[in-house]
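User: structure tokens for this one?
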Amino acid sequence: MLIRFVLRYAAHRMVDIHCHLLPNLDDGAESFEMACAMAESAIADGITHVIGTPHANSHYPFLPELVKQRRDEIQAHFEGRLTLATGCDFHLSFDNLREIQQDMERFTLNQNNYLLVEFADFSIPSSLDQALHELQLAGIHPIITHPERNPLIRSQPERLFRWLRQGCYAQVTAQSLLGRFGRSAQEVAEDWLDKGAVHFLASDAHNTTSRPLQLREAFEYVAKTRGESLAEALLVGNPRAAFDGLPLPYTPEPPEESGAEEEGQARGGRKRFWFF
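Assistant:
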């Protein structure tokens, strides 16, 4: 009975920090009507806060004024029912890195200090490690988006773990845990969840069918398999903190470097876990 109460309560205040709800900006919602349908789905699913994060890459120019306009149009339609903010799915390109040096808030989540960072599927040059470090020096907290769906990161997980040890965070797509992006993505998402290498679950929603704006099923899956406290951390506490630009309440120790694992096990791992 208590678990059912916790699930019901938490599932009605989830926060989605990564979705393509804002219409006619990228490969997400294709119309105002579709965006509204996605928002209705989110509300029905128990989501209270959403950050619209259109792509910022060579295929989709990122225009903050237009992004804000789209957000205002949707927000006016759902005032009092859903809280919307803006950010972007930031591709680590030379042009983007140059622009963010001039105006950090142009790209960050809710114009605070967290940034979704997307890597290409075909190449991740070692120079990008330094780029991530420079973002952190500028006061930005990089969040690596859907690494479980990136074949290069899946095949070289130590690169992700190094970024986490450097102070970055990782966001896994909720549907990856449910097997909807294939077995490889699901297996690695499960493994990284157990290793404390995941800080957020988000929808990365693009439409109302194949990639909907829903999180409840993932919340219930994590609560059932790993406990409601972790589900709360990944779908409520951490994303709400990022939404508000506050320190994350759940920050597990990142996986050790290869070769240091036995030493780490001997010392005993630890996880910081609190709510405010």
